[in-house]
Amino acid sequence: MSPSALIADTGELPSLQQKAKSASDVVFQGILRELEAHALVPGQRLVEVDLAAHFGVGRNSVREALQRLAAEGVIELSRHKGAAIRSLSQQETLDVLDVAERMLGLLARTAVRGVGEPSVRASLQETLQQLEQADQTQDSIAFARARRRFYRVLLDMGGNLELKRLFPTILMPVVHAQHRLPSLQKMRLDDYRRIALAVLEAKPEQAEAAASAHVNHVRTTIQAAYAAGKSS
Fold first, then answer.
1. According to CATH, where is 1.10.10.10 located in the chain?
2. Do 83 and 31 meet the contact criterion of CB atoms below 8 Å apart?
3. Which of 6, 68, 95, 229 has the fewest beta carbons under 10 Å from its own?
4. Paired strand residues for 78
5. Could you tell me which residues come within 8 angstroms of residue 122 by beta carbon, excluding any fewer than 6 positions away?
6. What is the pLDDT of residues 145-161, one digit of tens each?
């Protein structure tokens, strides 16, 4: 958030610590979004001075963001080579999906808790419409944005603070960036519909099963691509 935005929200100037934190967040979130939009790719080097200019922040904020991304496994930091987007091996990819399957299943199950709130139901339905529109226009950036919102809505519906803390640490942005398979987006949309329908019908077991099935579909597709030599 810019200083002017903070003034508008609070009527006060932000402290130096708030500025630094806000700038670091801009870089942190920006790198994740550019990774999902395929503007950054696994294995690509990240140069501090370039990132500072790109995001309009100081190099200290860039370093802080890179440390956070490294702690979450999104990038690798080397004393001699600097920072680079992490590239997952086949086994690492499958390990990420094993964790994602269980976490997404829990997310879908707990989301049923909030299904009685009309505004939340409307948000979930609206997000599905955004996913469908992005799929129809083949807009991968809009699809990634809607996918993030889909998960945020489910997290808000569940109200599990620990899940909110842990879920974003799963390395799915790296998996999505590394495995850009045409069949995945259409499959994801169909799966998201099933998850949302089960949640909206207040069926926790079906919601959990649909979420687990979704990750299994992703796993099967990626494994087939590895077998065919089409994936890294």
1. 23-85
2. no
3. 229
4. 82
5. none
6. 899 999 999 999 999 99
Contact present, 118 and 190 (Cβ < 8 Å): no
Residue 57: which of 118, 121, 2, 131 has the closest Cα? 2
- What does pTM read for this prediction? 0.79
What is the CATH code for 90-228? 1.20.120.530
How far apart CA 20 and CA 23 sit, in angstroms, is: 5
CA distances, 158 to each of 50, 141, 167 (Å): 39, 26, 12
Pick the CATH number of 23-85 from 3.20.10.10, 2.30.30.30, 1.10.10.10, 1.20.1740.10: 1.10.10.10
Residue identified by tokens 């802080």 is 64
Three-state SS string over 41-93 comes to: CCCCEECHHHHHHHHCCCHHHHHHHHHHHHHCCCEEEECCCEEEECCCCHHHH
Rounded to 5 degrees, what angle do the CA atoms 152, 209, 114 make?
A: 40
